[in-house]
Design brief:
The structure holds three protein chains of three kinds. Chain B is of the alpha/beta class. In chain B, about 40% of the residues lie in helices and about 20% in strands. Chain B is built from five helices and five strands, in the order βαβαβαβαβα. Chain B has helices spanning about 20-30, 45-55, 70-85, 100-105, 120-130, and strands at about 10, 35-40, 60-65, 90-95, 110-115. In chain B, strands 2-1-3-4-5 form a five-stranded parallel sheet, sandwiched between helices. The longest helix of chain B is centred in the middle third of the chain and has 14 residues, at about 70-85. By secondary structure, chain C is α/β, with parallel strands linked by helices. The longest helix of chain C is centred in the first third of the chain and has 26 residues, at about 5-30. The chains are: A alpha/beta, B alpha/beta, C alpha/beta.
Chain lengths: ~375, ~140, ~550
């Protein structure tokens, strides 16, 4: 027997035996019917939200799962009383719609930690509304008390980048020795990042990758400056940060530049599998969160309003389409406009009225949505 | 969202054996059949598997074991699901399992047992059957 | 006339034959399938003809048995001098029960022991650890402390028998126990003969009994190399194993390519630790699978020998002939056994054992027909052993060395497998070596893809497995299966409790402290582990101590 969304929200936030199951069920509803996000937001408006939604994206093999795993451990150590959420997104097969989601393999050590909730999502292609669904999942994680939520995606497809962008703050992970990392640089996916990590920094090629990354970032930084202040070249050069990496394997101390050039994304070198640089990374994330949490919360509110607006439009479109019919069927309704028997305005009024009365009929019938 | 979406499943290896060829193959086959399959990797405790299954809201758990510890570990997963009020999650299993253990496991709540050589098609059909015409809403 | 002229004439005759009689026949009777593949999926020609190089470059490419590049075998007389070692892998339940099975096997004519440990022992959990639930004594014998090891070899003189132990992440501990048991029998370490598997890389790749991360695991391995070179000189310190890689689904070429890439990693580690190539290389041994595609398997063994000899000579500059020889143990392919119609497995095992012998193996384990269902019964093990004895004494395959050499087909296949394996080694090098390739999931993914292709070819009916997807019978097999008695765990827990009660806890703690200190530093761990073992510290305690310093490995899946 399917429980209602309201009831699930209630069970999820109460600390009972059904809490986690209800939360998990809600997450399924959010990913299966992303348009119901508005309903969820309405029913959970007084409940806490995560302080930080951290997007982590990177090419396959860049070690982002390991990094996520170690960051999770670090956050758990720092905030033992708070729950931590991880949303791990992997692509669906475009041919069968199925998916093989293996991110948990790396994170299994957290599986029995009641303070960690891990959810694997399949990207389900562009039409699945995953970015919206992922937001719903994150909101549910807030319901069960997740203070930090990490959303991990493979940064290869546009939809994955969109999901990452639904986070407050996006970290792009690159690793030397991977053609994919360089491809990401070339593809301009750098725009998506608020912070960059050169992982596996103990491997040969790390310094070179750092250089490539820095010059790619400088290029896009210049392009952004061009848009903001069209002025002479000299001014840009003066504003161009020449940043040293933070974190491990760095001969130079962090030079405090990212305080000054707050918009220029910081770069970190670390080696997650050797536990090097992860703590410094977490420090930086905490510092940024402390500074930005209020902005993010406001941003999320704005975003939610926009999403509700989109959801309304989507729903109106759906309902009206039901009345007016799809392509072939629509001729019955639209032909009279073409022949001049009915005005366009009249048809619109008629269709909308019918849509309203259909919806209220449906409401009276039990068992339908 | 009216398209029929197949259920989410979890494939896990309880116990200590590292022979994941069968588990991975079945995971691939189920993915090919349109399921969303969450794979846990090897050497997982029944607790880890059950907690993961609950968080992932799966319809079924598939367990693979080749070490002979199935008589202890498969029923343990069923029992933990019951403790966590999640007994609606279907449990099936496979591996090096002597035929005479199969009825015992079924009596203890393991819905289906696949021994080596079971064709992929049969595995998919059996799981489809176990989950009924379960479709995502 | 030169051989090249001769083969050119054969080639043009071949063209005529193909366009003439073959084409005519095909027009009337098409072949059974468009492509004929080996068990590994390698496409084969209809017919093979002589290759001039087999004659022209005979000395460099084939040579003579016992001589570089060892393509034809590692000993000058091979089985005419001595049969391969018939070594049946066995072990289950408690040490007492396994000891009985070993003594039975020795009585039946096996010539070497091969110890199977249970999974908790292999990974370093004591029998009373939560992680060991359900696993105690299941796939092998449970060893918690020296006391169990003493029972395991009771009344088996360790100076008379060669013992192989399938043990990897905890190899140093089990080897230490073996050395101490020998001491108590009055046998000196230098008299000991045997092998530890000690191949951790393939555990990350395929078998899964890892405990520590790669770097400290490699350190343990070179500590063992160094210790044994000095104190246990006849011990084979590693058995670099392709068997499990193949079991996990690799092709024949991947089996040897990845295994030799593992070997390269071990050798480089030992060289970095300051060892000399010709000091430890003669003690390196290998372990491969034998599957039912006889020719592909024979070619695989020959290719592995030739490639290894070249790597040792050209890449590592080894000069001792013993350093250049690839000596290997073979086990018939566990994954090829079917639960359906289990009697058919006897035939599969026979073909596979034949391939191993034709390929020049140094020792052989033949699987029992019931192993797709459970651990083998004594009767099934006996038939498996008899299979080897029939091959040795009745088949005549031992009468001449490397009898398939010069087969146009087998020589060609040998060349192709060698080239494919060499290419894989190049790819591993390009990833930054084996450890990096494993961490990036390259090796695991390759194997998984091969396994998937193979599985699909069976599921689609393109590949026939008798009794599974063709010639199926619907009768349930009637067989008595071996069972590890349910009381095993309890008995083992009682043993462990007794040991913990009887030993001197202060000495144990002190010994473990030394293990910890040594692990934190760079010294050889073997002496500290030997001391801990003597004090009856358990496998679980020693491993937990090491894990505190080394950390634990977690797999990834990409």
């Amino acid at each position: 027997m399917e429980r209602s969304l309201v009831q699930l929200v209630c069970d999820a936030k109460c600390d009972g035996p059904q809490s986690l199951r209800s939360a998990a069920r809600l997450m399924s509803i959010m990913t299966d019917q992303p348009q119901r996000l508005a309903e969820l937001l309405a029913n959970s408006r007084d409940w806490p939200q995560p302080r930080l939604v951290l997007g982590i994206t990177g090419a396959p093999g860049s070690g982002k799962s390991t990094l996520t795993d170690h960051l999770a451990t670090e956050f758990r150590k720092r905030h033992p009383q708070q729950r931590l959420g991880i949303v791990a997104v992997d692509p669906s097969s475009p041919f069968t719609g199925g998916a093989l989601l293996g991110d948990r393999v790396r994170m299994m050590r957290h599986a029995t930690d009641p303070g960690v909730f891990i959810r694997s999502l399949a990207s389900r292609g562009r039409l699945g509304g995953l970015a919206l669904g992922a937001k719903g999942v994150v909101r549910v994680m807030g319901l069960i008390g997740c203070d930090v939520v990490i959303v991990e995606t493979v940064g290869v497809g546009q939809s994955e980048v969109e999901i990452a962008q639904s986070a407050d703050f996006v970290m792009v992970v690159l690793a030397p020795g991977h053609g994919d990392s360089v491809q990401m640089l070339k593809a301009g996916l750098m725009e998506a990042g608020d912070m960059f990590v050169v992982n596996k920094a103990d491997r040969p090629g790390a310094a070179q990758l750092h250089q490539q990354l820095l010059s790619a970032l400088q290029t896009s930084w210049m392009a952004r400056l061009d848009l903001a202040h069209p002025a002479s070249d000299d001014v840009h050069r003066a504003a161009l940060p020449s940043q040293h990496p933070h974190g491990t394997k760095c001969d130079l101390p962090p030079d405090g530049r990212f305080e000054n050039d707050a918009d220029f994304p910081p770069i970190f070198l670390c080696s997650a599998s050797n536990h090097e640089g992860v703590r410094e990374l977490a420090d930086a994330i905490e510092a940024i969160t402390a500074r930005k949490a209020d902005d993010w919360r406001a941003g999320r509110h704005q975003q939610a309003l926009e999403e509700i607006r989109q959801a309304v439009l989507e729903e109106v479109r759906r309902r009206v389409s039901e009345v007016i019919g799809a392509n072939g069927a629509s001729a019955v309704r639209t032909l009279p406009v073409l022949t001049g028997e009915v005005s366009l305005k009249n048809l619109v009024d008629e269709v909308m009225q019918e849509s309203v009365s259909r919806a209220s009929r449906a409401d009276r019938q039990p068992g339908t949505q | 969202m009216s398209a029929v979406r197949k259920a989410r499943l979890l494939i896990g290896k309880p116990g200590l054996d590292g022979h994941d060829r069968g588990a991975k193959y079945v995971a691939h086959v189920l993915r090919d059949a349109g399921f969303e399959v969450i794979y846990t990797g090897i050497r997982r405790s029944p607790e880890q598997i059950v907690d993961a299954a609950i968080q992932e809201d799966v319809a079924a758990i598939g367990l693979s074991l080749l070490s002979g510890a199935h008589n202890v570990l498969f029923p343990r997963v069923v029992e933990l699901l019951r403790e966590r009020q999640a007994e609606d999650i279907v449990v099936f299993g496979g591996g090096t399992i002597p035929p005479k253990d199969v009825p015992k496991l079924k009596a203890l709540g393991v819905a289906a047992v696949f021994t080596p050589g079971t064709p992929a098609r049969e595995i998919v059909e059996t799981i489809d059957g176990l989950l009924g015409a379960r479709q995502a809403v | 006339m030169s051989t090249i002229d001769a083969t050119q004439r054969i080639d043009s005759a071949l063209d005529q034959w193909t366009s003439g009689p073959v084409a005519k026949t095909l027009a009337k009777f098409p072949e059974q399938k468009p492509q004929f593949l080996t068990a590994s999926g390698k496409p084969l020609e209809r017919l093979y003809t002589p290759d001039a190089r087999v004659v022209d470059e005979y000395r460099e490419r084939l040579g003579f048995p016992g001589q570089y590049p060892f393509t034809r075998g590692v000993q000058p007389t091979m089985y005419r001098g001595r049969f391969w070692t018939m070594r049946q892998y066995a072990g289950f339940a408690t040490a007492e029960e396994s000891n009985k099975r070993y003594r039975y096997l020795l009585q039946q004519g096996t010539t070497g022991l091969s110890v199977a440990f249970d999974l908790p022992t292999q990974i370093g959990y004591d029998s009373d650890d939560g992680m060991a639930t359900g696993e105690v004594g299941k796939v092998g014998v449970a060893i918690d402390s020296l006391a169990d090891m003493e029972s395991l070899f009771r009344e088996i003189p360790l100076d008379k028998v060669s013992t192989s132990m399938t043990i990897n992440s905890t190899a140093a501990i089990l080897l230490a126990m073996y050395i101490v048991v020998a001491e108590k029998q009055g046998v000196k370490p230098e008299q000991l003969d045997g092998t530890i598997q000690n191949d951790i890389l393939k555990e990350y790749i395929a078998r899964g009994t890892y405990r520590f991360p790669p770097q400290p695991s490699l350190r343990l391995i070179s500590d063992i190399f160094a210790y044994c070179t000095e104190h246990v000189p006849n011990w084979n310190t590693i058995s670099i194993s392709g068997y499990h890689i193949r079991e996990a689904g690799s092709t024949a070429a991947e089996e040897i390519g990845f295994t030799l890439a593992d070997a390269i990693c071990y050798i480089e580690t030992a060289l970095k630790a300051g060892l000399k190539i010709d000091d430890f290389a003669p003690r390196l041994a290998f372990f491969f699978a034998a599957h039912s595609d006889v020719f592909e398997e024979v070619a695989k063994f020959r290719a592995a020998r030739r490639l290894y000899a070249r790597i040792m000579k050209e890449r590592f500059g080894a000069t001792n002939p013993k350093s250049l020889m690839l000596r290997f143990h073979t086990q018939t392919g566990g994954v090829t056994l079917t639960a359906q119609q289990p009697d058919n497995n006897v035939v599969r095992v026979t073909l596979q054992a034949l391939a191993a012998v034709l390929g020049g193996t140094q020792s052989l384990h033949t699987n029992s027909k019931d192993e797709a269902l459970a651990l083998p019964t004594e009767d099934a093990v006996t038939v498996a052993l008899r299979t080897q004895q029939i091959l040795a004494h009745e088949s005549g395959v031992i009468n001449t060395i490397d009898p398939l050499a010069g087969s146009f087909f087998v020589e060609k296949l040998t060349d192709e497998l060698e080239a494919e394996a060499e290419e894989l080694i190049r790819e591993i090098d390009a990833h930054g070596g084996m450890v990096a390739a494993i961490e990036q999931g390259f090796v695991q993914k390759r194997i998984e893809q091969s396994a998937y292709r193979y599985g699909q070819s069976i599921d689609r009916g393109e590949r026939v497995i008798v009794g599974v997807n063709k010639f199926v019978s619907h009768e349930e097999p009637q067989m008595d299966l071996f069972e590890v008695s349910e009381s095993t765990t309890q008995r083992q827990l009682d043993n462990l409790k007794q040991v913990r009660r009887r030993r001197d806890a202060a000495i144990v703690n002190e010994a473990l402290e030394v293990v910890k200190k040594t692990a934190q530093g760079a010294g050889n761990l073997m002496p500290a582990i030997l001391a801990a073992v003597r004090a009856y510290a358990t496998v679980g305690e020693i491993c937990a101590t090491l894990a505190d310093v080394f950390g634990e490995y977690t797999e990834s899946y990409q």
